[in-house]
Amino acid sequence: MSTVLLSENSRICSQRGKKRNISETNKTPTQQVQCWIKNGSINFIDVKMKYRNDLDLVLKGTSFSIQERVRVGCVGRTGAGKSSIIQALFRMTELERGSSITIDGVDIKTIGLHTLRSSISIIP
């Protein structure tokens, strides 16, 4: 079972939206990491993914929503898509056209990889 957690490290805002690292406050606004995760709701909308262009889809229109501030376990048989869901969430593979994953309403395609990956965590 794996659990995905939204990070509360000092580079992003805490749940109250006020926690900042002292070194972050000395930087200009363009150097600071934006606080884009507020509550942590996650939405997969018609997510289609394949590992290579010549292979079949491994996620075939997967859609689900995770409410804010909820811990989720991902369980299933071998080949059910558990690892593929995590890889899609961390943008380790690109999604097919029309697929969308949002965190607090922000499409993860619009977030830089470093910002995205440093803002979420997985516990295997």
Quote the average pLDDT.
78
| CATH class identity | Alpha Beta
Number of helices: 3
What radius of gyration results from the CA coordinates?
16 Å
Beta-strand percentage?
Answer: 25-35%
Care to count the β-strands? 7
- The CATH homologous superfamily name equals P-loop containing nucleotide triphosphate hydrolases
Write the SSE topology:
Blueprint: E1 2-6, H1 22-25, E2 42-49, E3 59-66, E4 73-74, H2 82-89, E5 100-103, E6 106-107, H3 113-119, E7 120-123
Antiparallel strand pairs: 1-4, 1-7, 2-3, 2-5, 5-6
Task: Offer a quick outline of the entry.
The protein has three helices and seven strands; from the N terminus they run βαβββαββαβ.
Which features characterize this protein?
Rossmann fold, 3-stranded antiparallel beta sheet, 4-stranded antiparallel beta sheet, 124 residues, 7 strands, alpha+beta
Describe the structure.
The chain has 124 residues and is an alpha+beta fold. The protein has a single domain, classed as P-loop containing nucleotide triphosphate hydrolases (Rossmann fold, 3-Layer(aba) Sandwich). Helices cover 15% and strands 27% of the residues. It is built from 3 helices and 7 strands; from the N terminus they run βαβββαββαβ. Strands 3-2-5-6 form a 4-stranded antiparallel β-sheet, covered by helices on one side. Strands 4-1-7 form a 3-stranded antiparallel β-sheet. A hairpin with a 2-residue loop joins strand 5 and strand 6. The longest helix has 8 residues, at 82-89.
